[in-house]
Specification:
Blueprint lengths: L7 H5 L15 H15 L5 E5 L7 H6 L3 E6 L11 E2 L13 E7 L8 H11 E12 L16 H10 L3 E7 L3 H14 L6 H25 L12 E7 L1
């Protein structure tokens, strides 16, 4: 079998990946896992979807193509979130009507909030009965977007917080096991060495690409040896119904 190294186009070949700006040669595995789960649910969404902490709004085009009303919400309109439709602090109540959304996205956001319980309560308020919340949070992940990195959430914490906010049918799934987690940690760590003049960066990438690619290709297979993936996963993907 010939193992084909991922190229920049590797991300674009995945369900929603060509929409996500953070997918790279060193981390496409976690985005493939996340996007596969999102795609399964987003393709069934109709009506209105709120994207809490939308950032670059990577899912906007996909939703609009399907006739879904997409509302991106973030704390400011900047290089990080140039397409936010509503500027709002997710640590505060939102100026949106009750039961006005059919689905809510909250991807890599909850760890950055000082008042995550309020955000979840607002999500429950905004959803119509039977509406779905699609939530993703990191677990074994490095500090990021400092100083706005406040929390990590275990499955028990996620289930308890969501239940207290009025959600039901809460399903918490892992995004890979021990080997995916370790591969991504090693890849992110080694990526720190890709710096300096253009030629040095190019040579560093040539050396690291086989390492990054082989690890990400093998990790999902090796994860099958991990019988307790929730213990050492990179993160969790949650589906909850209002």
């Amino acid at each position: 079998m010939i193992l084909q190294l991922p190229s920049v186009g590797h991300c674009a070949s995945m369900p929603l990946m060509n929409r996500h700006p953070n997918c790279g040669l060193h981390n496409w595995l976690i985005y493939r896992k996340l996007e596969a789960r999102l795609d399964r649910h987003l393709r069934r969404v109709e009506g209105t979807i709120y994207d809490l902490g939308c950032g670059e709004s990577p899912y906007r085009a996909r939703m609009l193509e399907r006739g879904v009303r997409y509302v991106g919400i973030d704390w400011e309109r900047s290089l990080h979130s140039p397409e936010a439709d509503l500027l709002a602090d997710l640590n505060r109540p939102l100026a949106l009507p009750d039961a006005s959304a059919d689905a809510i996205l909250c991807i890599s956001v909850l760890e950055h909030l000082r008042r995550p319980e309020l955000c979840l309560a607002e999500a429950a308020r905004l959803l119509k009965p039977g509406g779905v919340l699609l939530l993703q949070v990191p677990w074994q992940w490095s500090l990021h977007e400092l100083p706005h990195d406040w929390f990590r959430y275990s499955p028990v914490a996620l289930e308890g917080m969501l239940s207290a906010s009025g959600f039901r049918e809460i399903d918490v799934a892992t995004l890979g096991g021990f080997f995916t987690m370790m591969t991504l940690k090693l890849n992110y760590f080694s990526r720190r060495f890709v710096k300096g003049p253009a030629l040095l960066r190019f040579l560093s990438l040539l050396l690291l690409l086989p390492f990054w690619s082989l690890g990400q290709l093998l990790a999902p297979l090796l994860d099958q040896l991990d019988r307790s993936q929730a213990m050492e996963t990179s993160g969790y993907f949650v589906v909850a119904v209002r």
